[in-house]
Amino acid sequence: MDKSRKIKLENVLPADIERRSFEIIGEELRERGIRLDEELAPVIKRVIHTTADFEYVNTLCFSAHAVEHLKQAILHGACIVTDTQMARSGINKKELAKYGGEVYCFMSDEDVAETAKRMQTTRAVASMDKAALLNKDIIFAVGNAPTALVRLYELMRKEKLSPKGIIGVPVGFVNVVEAKELILQTDAPYIVARGRKGGSNVAAAICNALLYMMR
After folding, report:
1. 59-213 fold
2. One of 49, 65, 69, 76 is an active-site residue; which one?
3. What is the mean pLDDT of the chain?
4. Catalytic residue flag (residue 65)
5. How confident is the model at residue 3, as a pLDDT?
6. Burial of 9 (0-12, 13-18, 19+ CB in 10 A)
7. Has this prediction a pTM greater than 0.85?
8. Which of 122, 182, 124 is nearest to 153 (CA)?
9. Residue 65 near residue 189 (C-beta atoms within 8 A)
10. Where does residue 124 rank: exposed (0-12), middle (13-18), buried (19+ CB within 10 A)?
C-alpha cells in the first residue's frame, strides 16, 4: 500500500452537505449520459442520495403521472401507512402535517400481533388489514415486507381497499420480486423498485422527495 498517497477532502459545511451531494449526483448522471424526466428526477435523485446506488435510475418504476397523483393526495390530507417503525421515523412528519396528514405504522400494536398469531400470518399482513379499516385516504409506503404488498393486492382485488398510492420498495430475496410485480398490475398510482433492492430508508426517501417537491 502506498501510504504516501494524499487524500483530498472537500471542505463542505454541514448545511451544504446535502446540496453538494445532489450536485455530485447530477454530475455523475451527466457523465453517464443519463437525462431524467423532470417530474421523476427529484424522487430518483433522493433515492440515489439515500443509497449511493445509481441502479435505481433503471429499477424505479412509476405508473402514469404517479408523482402528481401522490402529491395531490398529500395536498388533500392523505396519510401514510408504513410497514416499519424505521420508515415511519424517517418520513418528515412535520412536512406531512402541513397538509393534515399523519404517518402510521401498526407493526408494534398488540392487536396486530394477536391477529397475526390467530390467523397464522405475518404482522405485516395484519397491519395492512388494520390500515384498511382507517376512514382516511392512505398512501402505503412498504420498504420491508413483501407480504404487505401481497395483502394490499388481495384487498384491492376484493374491493376492500382503494389506496391513493403505493410505494412498493421492500428489500430481500423471498417473494420480494413477485410481490412488487403484483403491484404493477394494479390501478393504484405506484412507485415500485423492481428487483431485490429497496428498504425502509428508500420508502422514507420517496415520501420525503414528494413532500419536499411540494414546498
Report:
1. Rossmann fold (3.40.50)
2. 49
3. 95
4. no
5. 60
6. exposed
7. yes
8. 182
9. yes
10. buried
